[in-house]
Specification:
Layout (H helix, E strand, L loop, with lengths): L1 H20 L15 E4 L6 E3 L2 E20 L11 E6 L6 H4 L2 E6 L2 E6 L8 H6 L1 E8 L2 H9 L5 E12 L5 E3 L13 E10 L1
Amino acid sequence: MVKAIIIGFLLISIMVYLIDTIEPRYPPGVLVPEDPDQELVSSAHSWQAGKYQITPLAEFRLRARVLHTEPYWFDRGADLSPVDLALGWGRMSDQSVVDELEFWQGQRWYRYWARKSKFPLPADEMTSHSANMHMIPATPKVKDVLRSVRTGKLVQLNGYLVEARGPDGSAWRSSLSRTDTGAGACELVWVDKVSMQ
C-alpha cells in the first residue's frame, strides 16, 4: 500500500512538472503592442541591496512575452540577479514570429536565430523589440515569482533600470536604449512588482 502511494505521488509530481513546463501557444497576432515605458530619474537616490549600492537610472514598466529564461546560481552576479528573462513585445510577441525563431541564453547573453533560411522580421526590429534583462528582485516574494516565470508566459513588471556597484568598486550598469547590441546592451532591472498571465 505504501509503495502504491509513493508511486502515485511520483507520477502526479511528474505530471504537474510536465504541465507546468509546457510552453503556452497563442493564435497568430501581436500579444503585447506597447513598448516598454521608461522615464529617466532626475534626482537619483541610491540604496543598499546586500553588498551592492543600487542607483536608479530610470523608472521602468514593461509588459512582454517571455521568449526564454535562464537562472543563475554560481556566476559573479547571481547573488544580485538570480535570473535573466529574454522578453519580446510588438511583433516579437507574435506566435507566428516566435515559431520561426530559436532562442538561447547563457553567460548573461541572449541570442536568436532563424529556424529556416531567413529571419521573419528585419534585424533592427528584432533588436528593438526584444531584450535580455537581468532581474534584481526587490523582495524574496518577487524573487520567487521571477524564478517561476516560464517561457511563453506574459509578464508584467514595475521597477527601475539601475546601476549596481559592488564593494570592490565594480559597476554593472543597465542599458537605457532599445536599439543597442553586444556587451552592455542588456537591461539591469530592479523589480518592485511582477505578475504573470
